[in-house]
Amino acid sequence: MRSEIIDVTTGGTDAVVDITRQCTEFVTRAGAVSGLLHVFVPHATAGVGILELGAGSDEDLLAALAELLPADDRWRHRHGTPGHGRSHVLPALVPPYATVPVVEGRLALGTWQSIAIVDINVDNPHRNIRLSLLTEPNNGAG
Length: 142
Hints:
The chain is α+β, with helices and mostly antiparallel strands. It contains 3 helices and 8 strands; from the N terminus they run ββαββααββββ. It has a single domain (2-135), classed as Jelly Rolls (Sandwich), CATH 2.60.120.460. The chain has helices spanning 20-30, 57-68, 85-93, and strands at residues 2-9, 15-18, 35-40, 46-51, 97-103, 106-107, 114-119, 126-135. It has a 5-stranded antiparallel sheet, with helices on one face. Strands 2-7-4 form a 3-stranded antiparallel sheet, with helices on both faces. A hairpin with a 2-residue loop joins strand 5 and strand 6. The longest helix has 12 residues, at 57-68. It comes from Lipingzhangella rawalii.
């Protein structure tokens, strides 16, 4: 297994940040032929999504999350900016992990799929994401 941490800045607003390039580069550096890429965000207030980006789906996701998890004072978890408690509910809806097959040295994503960090916690704009590559023995990624 190979593993590394990448740093991502999500900014001070609700965000969907594409990390597909970083994931692809990690798999390429590892020299993997086949296996599984596991993406994990070790934060209680962010998630990992696989979805189409740039065609409005990312904005639609953020709009849906704003409806489901409004940034107001209804949350019992109260610290940080108003509505911060909603960020702690997010990982139940957008899990903090995703696993993608690696086939013939490439991520086996669908044509329009991307890997993204989903972050509605405006109090923490910096995220560490652990990329782990699980490969078969003698697969070139030792």
